[in-house]
Amino acid sequence: MFNSLQGRTAIVTGGSKGIGRGIAEVFVRAGVNVVITGRTQADIDTCVDALSGQPGAVSGVAADVADPQACRDAVDAAVERHGGLDILCANAGIFPSGRLEELTPEDLEQVLAVNFKGTVYFVQAALPALAASGHGRVIVTSSITGPITGYPGWSHYGASKAAQLGFIRTAAMELAPKQITVNAVLPGNIITEGLVDMGEDYMNQMASAIPAGRLGGVADIGNAALFFATDEAAYITGQTLVVDGGQILPESHMAIAEL
Fold first, then answer.
1. b/e per residue, 132-150, with b = 16+ CB within 10 A?
2. Closest by alpha carbon to 237, among 164, 176, 162, 166?
3. In angstroms, what CA-CA distances link 166 with 110, 147, 173?
4. Which of 101, 116, 180, 243 could disulfide-link 175, Cβ–Cβ 3.0 to 4.6 Å?
């Protein structure tokens, strides 16, 4: 039986939509007070309204994770509202498509600024509060794309997600004496607004390549993140957890056909 996380406080970056919203929902249902960040206040307000009434309190703050001062301001807001910060879910990310020969310096900077630099900036901003909690947790949303697999058009995205994993391993070592763990969840294909926008054909093709026979839900990622946040996971740090329904396992579609 896991000890309750009720009453602890978490920030979920990029928490107004998609996987971030799923993480936020799992945490508030577990009694965690959650502060979500996003770029658009209207999206934040919609999410806060939808998740209210759960055991944990939920509120939001507009923040661009690529801006270090905005990250510090968001942490300050969480500490002011709830008296401290125990968990940082560094989830914010973007995934614009672009073939290698077409990528511009601006394209690269945009993706790396949000996906990689934004992770580092928010961890830096949260360090004093996480250390003060005595059981700080950093949970990074990476991806199977980049660290394990590739997909045409996402070389810059994949690089940013692989960079996150290089970061967490050394960060985990540096922060272990402060009783802060740093781990990452690597989602496969999860049903979000972004995936739906890629079309039904894409979704069906992706599902056909997954041994579980379906795409994942945002709660699947939320539950993995919640585990890393528990006291029972205190001796796990610098690790990655793939949540993909077995997507990375088959050698080919023929292997799926044999199931």
1. ebebbbbbbbbbbbbbbee
2. 176
3. 19, 10, 12
4. 180
Give me the residues paired with residue 44 across strands.
none
Question: Could you report the per-residue pLDDT of 91-129, keeping only the tens digit for each?
Answer: 999 999 999 999 999 999 999 999 999 999 999 999 999
User: What are the residue ranges spanned by the domains of the chain?
Assistant: 9-257
Active site residues: 157
Kindly state the tokens that stand for 227: 């585990």
Q: Give residue 69's pLDDT.
A: 98
What residues contact 139, with CB distance under 8 A and at least 6 apart? 87, 88, 89, 90, 183, 184, 185, 225, 228, 229
pTM for this model (two decimals):
0.95
**Beta carbons of 37 and 65 less than 8 angstroms apart:** yes
- Where in the chain does DSSP place strands (E)? 9-12, 33-38, 58-62, 87-90, 137-141, 181-187, 240-243
Give me the pLDDT at residue 197, please: 82
**The amino acid at 187:** P
Q: Specify the pLDDT at position 1.
A: 61
Q: At what angle do helices 68-82 and 118-133 cross, to 10 degrees?
A: 30
Residue 51 CB partners (closer than 8 Å, separation 6+)? 21, 24, 25, 28, 34, 58
DSSP 51-116: HTTSSS-EEEEE--TT-HHHHHHHHHHHHHHHS---EEEE---------GGG--HHHHHHHIIIII
- Round to whole Å and give the CA distance between 211 and 246: 6
